Amino acid sequence: MDWLEEKIYNTKIRIRNTPFCSAITAYILVAAAAALLLSYITITFCFQWESRIWQSYNKGDEIWIYSVKLTEWPFWPQSFSNFSSHDTTQMNLLDFIRTWCPFLYTLLGAILACRLFYRRRLSSPLRILQDGTEAVRNNNLDFDLSYDSRDEMGELCRSFDEMKQELIHNKQMMWELVENQKQLNAAFAHDLRTPLTVLKGYSDFLARYIPQGKVSEEKMLDTLRLMSSHLDRLEQYSRTMKGIRSIDELPVHREKCYVSRIEDEIREIIFPLDQIGDIQVVFSVSSQTNETEQVLADSSLILEVLENLLSNAIRYAESTIETILTFEPDNETLVLTVHDDGPGFTQSDLQNALNPYYKEHRADETLSEKEDPHFGIGLHICSLICEKHGGKLSIANSIDKGAVVTASFSCKND
């Protein structure tokens, strides 16, 4: 029985996978054969019935085969003048059925063949395709589109499913583009805040001390030069952000420079920030760092990370922010450490602070969104920049008090 069931199953599979042209031909041939058989049976039945009526009026010894008289042609006359009205009606009706039944059976067979073909080979895949089209129209791509057949409709369903997968892929790409653009806009807005704060600090410094005569001409010119330098950085940063589609495409331009130069640039950022508010920003260089050491680094990206870290530290520090620059010659790594004396990271912060758009609850509880336009993307940007520079970003809480953020940058010639 198992062998027979397997043969029947394989036969059904072969029939279901038959191409449409062969299947339609088979349906028509079966319908034609059925119409031919029914026509033969009907005509034979009519001849027999007619012969019985003729024999009831013919008392001779003529020989009849299937009610056909073999001794003369035509087999019986067309006139039934000597027949009763009832027999005449029967003879005319039987003659009509015998003449037109092949056309009737052929028509009915064609209609039945078409309906069977539609129900067995077209109805199910068409319903699947219709449901899939309706789902796509409703922006729902989470549906199954499978039709287990290798005929033309099966190929069409598989093509539709491939189109659905392509739509899903394109939708994911579109979502990624929107998300990248969102991150890029947030990063651009976020990174502009600290440089503008630096420029504001310089302008406040000049506005406060020039009227008092406490700024020499040389110091004023030096401050204006620094402000111009920061404006050039902002302009270059704007051009860079305009030419990329996501933060991942942020270019890294490494060049040889002295550690002392990076130190001076850091001091230029920290000095104006130290003039604003009641937060003291302290900068120091690790004792193991040789300032005459040359490193291969992108100083603009290092300063961008520093500005982001200082921006976050200023938001939470109570009175002091300590920044330390360290160069580790053994593994050619430059390390920036920013330590504030604020409340430090919560357990949730330590797990999620490097994720994009994460906002700690402390800011939301104390300030409104308008008063504290925090994007929740600063540490995420710093982490990406450190990774692009061959390093990493780590966050922790100090043993005594406050948060500690460490950014490392590989200075190896990769």
General shape: rod-shaped
User: What string, H for helix and E for strand, traces the elements in order?
Assistant: HHEEHHHEHEEHEEHHHEE
Q: If strands are numbered along the chain, what order do they take across the biggest sheet?
A: 4-6-7-9-8
Uncertain stretches: 63-76, 361-373
Number of strands: 9
Helix percentage range: 55-70%
Mean pLDDT: 78
What can be said about the biggest beta sheet? 5 strands, mixed
> What is the distance, rounded to the nearest whole angstrom, between the alpha carbons of the first and last residues?
71 Å
The number of distinct helices, counting runs of at least 4 residues, comes to 10
Describe this structure in words.
With 414 residues, the protein is α+β, with helices and mostly antiparallel strands. The protein has 10 helices and 9 strands. It starts with a helix and ends with a strand.
Outline:
The protein has 414 residues and is α+β, with helices and mostly antiparallel strands. Helix content is 60%, strand content 12%. Strands 4-6-7-9-8 form a 5-stranded mixed β-sheet. Strands 1-2 form a two-stranded antiparallel sheet. A two-stranded antiparallel sheet has the order 3-5.
List the helices and strands and how they pair.
Blueprint: H1 2-16, H2 20-57, E1 64-65, E2 68-69, H3 85-137, H4 152-209, H5 217-242, E3 255-258, H6 259-274, E4 280-285, E5 294-297, H7 299-316, E6 320-328, E7 333-340, H8 347-352, H9 361-366, H10 378-388, E8 393-397, E9 403-410
Parallel strand pairs: 4-6
Antiparallel strand pairs: 1-2, 3-5, 6-7, 7-9, 8-9
Helix pairs in contact: 2-3, 3-4, 4-5, 4-6, 4-7, 6-7, 7-10
